[in-house]
Amino acid sequence: MTQKKSARRPDPAKAGPGGVGREATPGLVPQIQDHIGRQLRAVYEDVLNQPVPDRFKELMDKLDEKLGETE
């Protein structure tokens, strides 16, 4: 009879910024995790600074109106 290994799930209470905690990757050295985080932020910085497309704003406004009616 074989025994199944259960997947470890990170504890949200121990999560760091952005919801990723040190426990999420037990074999990864914290300095490497920090380095990866800095590199990802640098790569996606331009995307985060782009304006929201008008179509998305229109959809958000419609959603706000609809939610306002139900409250």
Automatic annotation (TrEMBL):
List residues of the Anti-sigma factor NepR domain: 33-66
Task: Specify the protein name.
Answer: Anti-sigma factor NepR domain-containing protein
Read off the Pfam families from this record. NepR
Q: Where is this region: Disordered?
A: 1-31
- Species the sequence originates in: Alsobacter soli
Superkingdom is Bacteria
